[in-house]
Design a protein that fits this description.
The protein contains 13 helices and 24 strands. It has about 450 residues and is an alpha+beta fold. The chain has a domain of about 170 residues: FAD/NAD(P)-binding domain, CATH 3.50.50.60. The strands form five sheets. Strands 1, 2, 10, 11, 12, 13, 23 and 24 form an eight-stranded mixed sheet that branches. Helix 1 links the parallel strand 1 and strand 2. The radius of gyration is 22 Å and the shape is globular.
């Protein structure tokens, strides 16, 4: 593939890169796209079903979302549902019951207030009392057949899409892209070592040769920042890699059970989920653990971590601000303890009993090899941990660098649409926004 020119080269064969490949091929006049994936298969890391919670984040059960964000995420999630209606084979999106569980008087009051605020945007979400919860999720409401002692309510539904195998979805996007008139070249085992900028194109050096591109989009998780830094971009950012681990119990939940988010904690609250690749088990988690590497189970990437951290006084100040808060400090130490074999099951059981009150430590199995790693961005200019998705789009250059923590997988088509508009505008290529609005956005563009 030495010195072959493509209209667009996409670095990263996960859900974000594959979604952009599909959107550009289906809805624009881009003639050729190369997808470069470091490993030997598509979606090998965080998009793999074993590396995430397999949740379609719709804004309805995520209590850390404000209403406006929830409504936007709902529209982007619906794009995946609409895409599923366009393809013949759908092995990636599923319906399960889902709920937000509130335990205790204070949480119940907060959930009731949230339900009232969100009711118009999410009319299918019902408020359930303990008796209704027991019908849908007996293990949540009962202990040995008797009601649990605390007050509980839930906000939930039983007939909405709630789970996605993002690895299968990634492959579906590429298959759909190959059914268009756009030339699609997927090059596996093609780690990008260097991106060089020239007057009218970019050259990407890989183990499979040099790829030339008019436009480059990097959707390579935490490694996106390192590639941006090569070209002098994103130097005011650092990466804090947050790993998530999970525990298994024999299948005890019928659907997804989320808990109320602690507003002081910038990390996901504990939840229980059916496992799409281990259907005989219920998965509980995630934990939250800072790891000095950029990939969870592949070995190495320790040096890449230090290069992306760019440790200095500003980064230390962010860490200090986090650790001086006792709630965050205790949470971090407790999550470290969840990784210690001798004590972790007993400790985790105490937290998991909020969802399954009758759970015992011996019921838990540490899920070896399950869980991923998300790049949380540190903004060194403002000296804050920047939650949510982050992108670097240099002004006047044909470059985009994406770092996409949750809900980046759910919002992959929305993000792809955003990036495709930039790509086509800067390349002077037409994009059929009317068709994408009709097929994926239910007839109303984001800007309408």
């Amino acid at each position: 593939m030495q010195n072959r020119m493509f209209d667009v080269v996409i670095v990263g064969g996960g859900i974000s890169g594959c979604a952009l490949t599909y959107v550009l091929s289906k809805y624009s006049e881009v003639k050729s796209i190369a997808v470069l994936e470091k490993y030997g298969s598509l979606a090998p890391l965080n998009s793999n079903a074993r590396a995430n919670s397999q949740t379609l984040h719709c804004g309805d059960i995520e209590t850390n979302y404000k209403l406006e964000k929830a409504k936007l995420v709902k529209r982007q999630a619906q794009m995946l549902v609409n895409y599923a209606d366009l393809v013949e084979k759908n092995d990636f999106i599923f319906k399960f019951p889902k709920m937000i569980l509130a335990v205790g008087e204070e949480e119940c009051e907060r959930l009731e207030a949230r339900h009232a605020e969100f009711a118009e945007a999410f009319p299918y979400m019902e408020l359930w009392d303990a008796e209704k919860i027991a019908e849908i999720e007996p293990a949540v409401a009962l202990i040995d057949g008797k009601p649990r002692p605390e007050k509980i309510i839930a906000c939930g539904c039983t007939d909405e899409y709630s789970a996605v195998n993002f690895g299968n979805l990634s492959k579906s996007f590429i298959n759909s892209a190959r059914n268009t008139n756009t030339e699609i070249n997927v090059s596996l085992s093609s780690e990008v070592e260097k991106i060089a900028q020239f007057d009218d194109h970019y050259e990407l050096t890989t183990s499979q040769g040099t790829f030339m591109a008019k436009f480059v989009v990097v959707s390579a998780g935490a490694h996106s920042l390192l590639l941006a830094n090569q070209l002098g971009h994103g130097l005011d950012m650092s990466i804090l890699p947050m790993a998530g681990s999970f525990y298994y119990v024999p299948k005890i939940l019928n659907g997804k059970v989320y808990t109320m988010q602690n507003d002081k904690l910038p990390f996901a609250a504990l939840h229980g989920d059916p496992d799409l690749v281990e259907m005989s088990k219920t998965r509980l988690g995630p934990t939250a653990l800072v790891l000095p590497k950029l990939e969870r189970y592949t070995g190495g990437t320790y040096l890449d971590f230090w290069r992306s951290l760019k440790l200095d006084g500003k980064v230390i100040r962010v860490f200090w601000d986090l650790m001086k808060d006792s709630t965050i400090r205790n949470y971090i130490f407790r999550n470290f303890a969840f990784e210690i074999p001798i004590i972790r099951q007993k400790l985790f059981a105490k937290d998991a009993q909020k969802i399954i009150p009758g759970l015992k430590a011996e019921d838990l199995e540490y899920a070896d090899g399950i869980g991923g790693l998300r790049p949380q961005v540190i903004n060194k200019t403002d000296m804050v941990l920047q939650l949510g998705e982050a992108s670097i789009v240099p002004e006047g250059e044909n470059l985009i660098f994406n770092m996409t923590p949750s809900p980046g997988a759910t919002t992959c088509l929305g993000n792809a649409y955003r990036d495709a508009k930039i790509v086509t505008e800067r390349l002077g290529i037409k994009m059929d926004r009317a068709l994408i609005t009709k097929e994926l956005l239910g007839g109303q563009d984001f800007e309408d």
